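Backbone shape codes:
***
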Amino acid sequence: MNREPSHLSHLDHLHLTQFHHRALVVDMHADTLQRVLDEGVDLRVGAPGLHLDLPGMRAGGVDAQFFSIWPNPYQYWGESALKRALALITSLEAQIQRHADVLEQALSASDIRRIASKGKIAALMGIEGGHAINEDLDALREFFKLGVRYLTLTHSRSLSWAGSSGDAEGQHRGLSDFGREVVREMNRLGMMVDISHVSDRTFWEVLAVTTKPVIASHSAARALAPHPRNLTDEMIRAVAAGGGVVCVVFFPVFLTQDSSQVKAVTLARVVDHIDHIVQLTGIEHVGIGSDFDGIDLTPHGMETVARLPALTIELARRGYHPQEIEKILGGNVLRVMEAQE
């Protein structure tokens, strides 16, 4: 992408890292709570192979982290999925209580700004997979009361009320009447509708129902990597037209069309996807959704959350201006959150 160079492109890595730490950085998706709950991992201490912990978030300049509440749909379904989601929420609450000097729960964009201004990290939650509500709108409302601020309508297994991009049923399944009720109730509550993982048909039917901007919490551009989890150019434009944001995932499998090159993917490829979305929609509709600790491979140069300043360095190298980088790092997501509220 050819851009006029900004003054940032002339700064050294130290000054760019300092700029990164001054910006509000919001990561829309990390799966770290699985290990917190199942292995007793403490976020301050970390663990071997963990992509995200408190020291790493400090080093990476993270101001707000959406923790994924993910009941694996191949292990948990129905009532067990709801219980697993509640257990994951409880595990985060315990971490927030244990590390109150560093972590604080946020429920809104204004909370994020307030918590960041105190030098702390805002902890937020998004449920990954509508099976967690067990076909019950009361459960959806209860999750909102507990602090959940987005729901990924499906994971990789289709529901009776929404199709997934990850299975055969999803190829022809969209939203049922109940699925449309879910979207409307999320709009009413102020919970962001997340279309990462949904089937193409479900995507378009969601956009026909929603009255609020939607997000893709961790997806990439299908034009650069033709994976059904990614969004076509038409879809990306449609998200933008509704005021939403596509948060680029860091998983190399979703970043390259050449399967033989997956292990060679670098941070630059993440920025290629950001560039592509910016070219399609302008600067207002792209963010980041790392999927840390939900992926078994990371791009070279983005091995853990501590490496996040390298993203700002690469954006600056490509000529992005300070206010543009601030929007990519978190400003666009905060705008979408405010539109829900």
